[in-house]
Design the sequence.
């Protein structure tokens, strides 16, 4: 039920945006109670679908007048609860701001609205010789606005960088309702790089309404290899060998035996099911250099104990290989009723160590864990398999997750490489950062979002009214 | 300023000096300190903060002309003793160093593992990495490799109260917390004093070669630039050069009469890749009507690269400007610059739309007006900007030097105010409007 205090707000929103762009009935709102992080849920009081930047500014100003919290949402694919409406309030959903406003190949940029789905831009660029480089596994559903909020990565970020490296400028509605452009199609705008600071701020500093993105020239050629290993350790050693040899592959992904079976059942690629690990290695660039790079990679893999290294025969086989990888999470449904995809980072030379620890943690908590991840970046994605109807299992999953992430910190890494902090990992921020570090981050928050009405209780443990101590015990199991 | 350095525990680890000497020349320094480590840096800043005086962070001192000349007397905080390599796990392709390390010293460390930081700045034997980050300086290779913001994955800075804070980490992919590394890159020391930096490194390419051609007309120049961007090759630098300095550069040979300037493209990769690209690009140029392309390699390439890298930082130039325009407007903007000084020497990182002009003949009394009435409107028409990089002309206003920041200005001031409410860090130099700075 909408809280009575919000009724006048809902009515005013209908007047401003039209009935068709406002949802306030509980049955309509349930869809928006969580994102890809399903462990905590809460319905917003109102959902609005702005048609343009001016709509967004009006909504924000209204929320301020009525002291109501508000937050943006793209497609809701985020995995750390960044779209969880803590305290309810107004959710601003960008699915109707989905225009590609301009494509400029000569100056290598495009202007998009935040609701543009990541892959639409690359599809729109087909035949031009250019593409948009960040390619998260959810790229068929996630929006570029959401990518900007979480500074999304993807398999090809090893060579090409993450979202911030491809964001030239943003137009945003700020927490007070003002509309400001930072950066733009021209590089080196004078003053502070607020574009850089806002990317990855998980919707806690500003609501992005327009994005100038860098377009990347397509590589002339590509070689996609599949390395098959009888031990996880050999596979991770190969990664270090390849990068140590000065080769930066476009992508370097790993799948372990646990996930391989599910992926094979779903996509019938022909993966060897007895392998302990496979590496998906892609090099791209000039044809003139590719065969020698491929040969060197094959040699390095064989030297570090690969059973075999296959090359994708043609474009179709390459596509199937990538489909298998990018939709691997979907295939996990075959393994268990529920799963939790974790996200952590270690220096890539620490991969053997962290994978060994994950195996131990899996045994300790009797939670099955499979792995599919961006090995070249040291960005692990252990997938914890469980049944969410069993509260006791859920509690073990949470403990196992925390232990894995704490091990990442102890290994010199981070608790998130691309999913973000959201609400899920707030309690880990104190372990990664000192109070002084967090105070500096809070200063940035205070400059942009002093009232905390925009995306409250996210990212920083000090933010908002909901104290972090409530987060863990408060994980409501709508399960 | 009258205030004297109070005795404190930093004395042992920090070298204090009353003389301003040559270091920090354009800055109004009453005293300087050279802290030996981060703890000493913290102590110096805490003391400065207590006394309520200004602090001017100084690296190698190569960019002190960048930004307005401040009027507030203060303390020079020299970072050059913070020059240690903290951690270099080469196999992880990251390196953590103190901010005062020179670019040359960093290169020397990295090259031992066949790695490098492909971001360049003038005078690498004295310029520091912290200075490069604070000024967000970049060189020709930004087309192929990006700029400093793409390489800093972690940092520690000390705030004006002397409290260290860090952001990012030591791994190449990390989205935990706000990316204060981006915020401090290019903030010109106005938010905190950078003390430690973690970088992503890259493998050193096996080979570098330059391909150059003359430009018979500006019309052909734009067609050539568009073709280079769209080329089958993958250049790492696209430099358009014009004006007296480039007419007789020893590595380029004399320009033919009637030539407007030159295009120099840098190609890097394995030997077979570079060989293929040299042939391919020359063939692409021939199709556009360029009869001769010169390959520049070896010593000649090294000499030319040095000039390309040092051009923007020439300490003896009376006025150096930097324009930023869409790459497609580079030739048009150069033409505008030449209406103000036909003798200007110009280097454009043309693939990025960055145009650096070293003015030779201009009337000091009129240059500020020319900036405001002709150059800046020309850049702004295409969404760009133009700023002064260095000048020995007196009397610049903030508006003339940096231009306005538009609707973003109040938000930059809010950030500045949160980090340095007393406006003690590098006051008066940066682009903030006068109300906030």
Sequence:
């Amino acid at each position: 039920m909408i809280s009575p205090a919000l009724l006048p707000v809902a009515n005013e929103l209908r007047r401003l945006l039209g009935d068709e762009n406002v949802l306030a009935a509980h049955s309509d709102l349930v869809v928006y109670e969580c994102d890809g992080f399903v462990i905590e849920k809460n319905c917003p009081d109102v959902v609005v679908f702005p048609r343009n930047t001016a709509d967004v500014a009006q909504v924000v100003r209204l929320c301020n007048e009525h002291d109501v919290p508000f937050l943006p949402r793209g497609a809701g694919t985020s995995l750390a609860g960044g779209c969880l409406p803590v305290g309810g309030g107004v959710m601003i959903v960008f699915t109707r701001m989905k225009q590609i406003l301009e494509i400029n190949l000569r100056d290598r940029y495009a202007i998009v609205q935040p609701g543009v789905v990541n892959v639409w831009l690359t599809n729109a660029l087909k035949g031009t010789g250019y593409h948009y480089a960040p390619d998260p596994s959810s790229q068929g559903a996630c929006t570029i606005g959401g990518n900007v909020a979480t500074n999304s990565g993807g398999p090809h970020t090893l060579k090409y960088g993450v979202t911030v490296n491809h964001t030239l400028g943003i137009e945003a509605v700020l927490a007070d309702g003002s509309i400001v452009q930072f950066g733009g199609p021209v590089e080196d705008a004078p003053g502070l790089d607020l574009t850089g600071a806002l990317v990855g701020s998980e919707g806690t500093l500003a609501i992005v309404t327009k994005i100038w993105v860098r377009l990347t020239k397509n590589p002339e050629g590509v070689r996609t290899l599949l390395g098959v290993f009888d031990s996880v350790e050999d596979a991770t050693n190969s990664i270090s060998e390849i990068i140590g040899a000065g080769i930066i592959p476009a992508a370097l992904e790993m799948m372990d035996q646990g996930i391989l079976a599910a992926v094979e059942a779903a996509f019938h690629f022909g993966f060897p099911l007895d392998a302990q690990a496979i590496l998906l290695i892609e090099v791209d660039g000039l044809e003139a250099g590719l065969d020698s790079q491929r040969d060197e990679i094959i040699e390095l893999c064989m030297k570090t104990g690969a059973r075999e290294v296959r090359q994708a025969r043609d474009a179709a086989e390459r596509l199937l290989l990538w489909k298998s990888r990018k939709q691997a999470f979907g295939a996990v449904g075959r393994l268990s009723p529920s799963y939790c995809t974790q996200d952590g980072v270690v220096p890539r030379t620490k991969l053997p160590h962290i994978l060994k620890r994950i195996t131990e943690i899996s045994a300790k908590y009797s939670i099955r864990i499979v792995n599919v991840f961006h090995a070249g970046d040291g960005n692990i994605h252990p997938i914890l398999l469980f049944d969410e109807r069993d509260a006791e299992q859920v509690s073990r999953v949470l403990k196992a997750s925390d232990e894995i992430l704490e091990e990442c910190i102890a290994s010199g890494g981070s608790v998130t490489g691309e999913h973000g902090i959201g609400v899920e990992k707030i309690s880990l921020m104190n372990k990664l950062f000192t109070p002084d570090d967090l105070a500096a981050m809070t200063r940035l928050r205070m400059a942009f979002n002093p009232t905390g009405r925009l995306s409250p209780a996210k990212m920083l443990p000090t933010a908002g009214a909901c104290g972090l101590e409530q987060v863990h015990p408060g994980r409501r199991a709508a399960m | 300023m009258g205030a004297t350095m109070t005795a404190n525990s930093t004395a042992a680890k920090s070298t204090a000096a009353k003389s301003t000497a040559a270091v920090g020349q354009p800055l109004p320094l009453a005293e300087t300190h050279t802290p030996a480590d981060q703890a000493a840096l913290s102590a110096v800043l805490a003391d400065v903060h207590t006394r309520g005086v200004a602090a001017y962070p100084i690296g190698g001192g190569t960019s002190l002309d960048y930004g307005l000349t401040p009027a507030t007397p203060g303390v020079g905080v020299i970072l050059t003793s913070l020059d240690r390599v903290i951690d270099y796990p080469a196999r992880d392709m990251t390196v953590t160093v103190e901010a005062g390390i020179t670019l040359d010293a960093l290169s020397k460390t990295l090259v031992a593992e066949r790695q490098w930081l492909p971001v360049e700045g003038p005078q690498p034997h004295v310029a520091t990495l912290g200075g490069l980050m604070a000024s967000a300086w970049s060189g020709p290779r930004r087309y192929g490799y990006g700029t400093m913001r793409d390489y800093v994955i972690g940092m520690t800075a000390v705030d004006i109260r002397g409290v260290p804070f860090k952001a990012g980490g030591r791994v190449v992919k990390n989205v935990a917390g706000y990316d204060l590394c981006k915020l401090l890159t290019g903030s010109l020391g106005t938010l905190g004093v950078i003390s430690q930096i973690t970088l992503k490194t890259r493998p050193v390419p096996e080979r570098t070669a330059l391909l150059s051609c003359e430009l018979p007309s500006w019309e052909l120049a734009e067609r050539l630039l568009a073709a280079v961007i769209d080329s089958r090759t993958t250049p790492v630098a696209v430099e358009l050069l014009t004006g007296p300095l480039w007419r007789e550069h020893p590595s380029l040979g004399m320009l033919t009469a009637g030539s407007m300037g030159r295009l120099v493209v840098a190609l890097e990769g394995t030997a077979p890749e570079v060989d293929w690209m040299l042939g391919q690009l020359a063939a692409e140029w021939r199709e556009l009507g360029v009869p001769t392309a010169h390959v520049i390699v070896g010593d000649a390439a090294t000499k030319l690269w040095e000039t390309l890298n040092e051009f923007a930082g020439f300490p003896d130039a009376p006025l150096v400007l930097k324009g930023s325009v869409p790459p497609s407007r580079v030739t048009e903007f150069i033409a505008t610059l030449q209406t103000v000084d036909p003798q200007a020497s110009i280097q454009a990182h043309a693939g990025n739309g960055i145009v650096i002009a070293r003015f030779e003949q201009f009337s000091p009394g009129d240059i500020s007006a020319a900036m405001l009435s002709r150059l800046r409107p020309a850049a702004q028409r295409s969404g760009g900007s133009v700023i002064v990089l260095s000048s020995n002309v007196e009397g610049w206003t903030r508006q003339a030097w940096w231009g306005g920041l538009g609707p973003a200005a109040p938000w930059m001031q809010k950030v500045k105010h949160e980090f340095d409410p007393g406006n003690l860090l590098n006051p008066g130099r940066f682009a903030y409007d006068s109300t906030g700075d």
In short: The radius of gyration of chain A is 22 Å.
